[in-house]
Amino acid sequence: MSQAEVTTAAAARPAPSPLWALSLFRSEVGTVFRRWRTIALLGVLTAVPVLVGIAVKMETGDGGAAGRGGAGPAFISQVTNNGLFLVFTSLAATLPFFLPMAVGVVAGDSVAGEASSGTLRYLLVAPAGRTRLLLAKFTATLAFCCAATLTVAASALAVGALLFPLGDVTLISGVTVSFGEGLLRALAVAGAVVLSLVGIAALGLFVSTLTNSGIAAMATTVGLLITAQIVDQFPQLHAVQPYLFPHYWLSFADLLRAPVYWDQLLDNLGLQALYAAVFGSAAWARFTAKDVTA
């Protein structure tokens, strides 16, 4: 279907009601979470805290301390004292690769997958409009970001409660807070992780508008993720590192200080908003001008 045909069809139909737009969003979210690939990704994310918890339990079975010599993810040395720290450890372990890879797969497949399966042009015939459809797909991807992060956090909390004691939480700064406040901070950390994934979601959506192959879009998005992670490790490239979307990902640890250090948290939020604005606009410009033939 050419751009001219889509424009003519759009002009001939009435504007969709707000309820129809909400139905479109619900449909997109349902489509994302009904796919076996999405279920498999959530299953892998659920298993990571289980494996980390069992590994820590086995390592400390003789009374030793986890993470001796500084090995392992952040907070791992605190897990044996308080199972709540398994939430922070699991998020720190999954954020560099597993969580963003899962988001990259979903975002990369959002438009290109529809094109490769031949359903995209039928969606455009419906009274949605390209802008609404793209916004619905981006919002559905953000819903997956929330679901994936909460899956890791909930699995870690359950495993931590099963394998380790729970109680008052000693923060990084040495201040001890109640378990209830620790749970609130864990929820805040999960929220910070969700916001950290906005940049890769917008980038994946843009890549998805460039091709009609879902596999190619997913592979490209994951490839860009790996490239950004590698570049962020070289001190010689420090000038560009603050502009890479993964650079401030682990700043969520500052939420475990008293008082909270906001500088890098706000830098991360601003960077993710910049990526969302730039690549969201690029995706909109590409998608609204794209000839959809499949």
Written account of the structure:
Helices cover 66% and strands 1% of the residues. The chain has helices at residues 3-12, 18-34, 36-59, 85-94, 98-117, 120-125, 130-163, 179-196, 198-208, 214-231, 263-288, and strands at 169-170, 176-177. The longest helix is centred in the middle third of the chain and has 34 residues, at 130-163. The radius of gyration is 21 Å and the shape is globular. It starts with a helix and ends in a 6-residue tail after the last helix.
What is the secondary structure topology, with strand pairs?
Elements: H1 3-12, H2 18-34, H3 36-59, H4 85-94, H5 98-117, H6 120-125, H7 130-163, E1 169-170, E2 176-177, H8 179-196, H9 198-208, H10 214-231, H11 263-288
Antiparallel strand pairs: 1-2
Helix pairs in contact: 2-7, 3-4, 3-5, 3-7, 4-7, 5-7, 5-9, 5-10, 7-8, 7-9, 9-10, 9-11
Which properties best describe this structure?
single chain; 294 residues; mainly alpha; two-stranded antiparallel ribbon
Q: What would you call the structural class?
A: mainly alpha
Strand content: under 5%
Question: Total strand count, please?
Answer: 2
Low-confidence stretches: 6-13
Q: Mean of residue pLDDT? A: 86
The string of secondary-structure elements, in order, is HHHHHHHEEHHHH
Oligomer: single chain
Instruction: Report the sheet with the most strands, covering strand number, pairing sense and barrel closure.
Output: 2 strands, antiparallel
Rg over alpha carbons: 21 Å
- Considering DSSP H and I runs of 4 or more, what fraction of the residues is helical? 55-70%
Shape, principal axes of CA atoms: globular
Q: How are the strands of the largest sheet arranged?
A: 1-2
- Tally of helical segments: 11
**Between the first and last Cα atoms, what is the distance in angstroms?**
8 Å
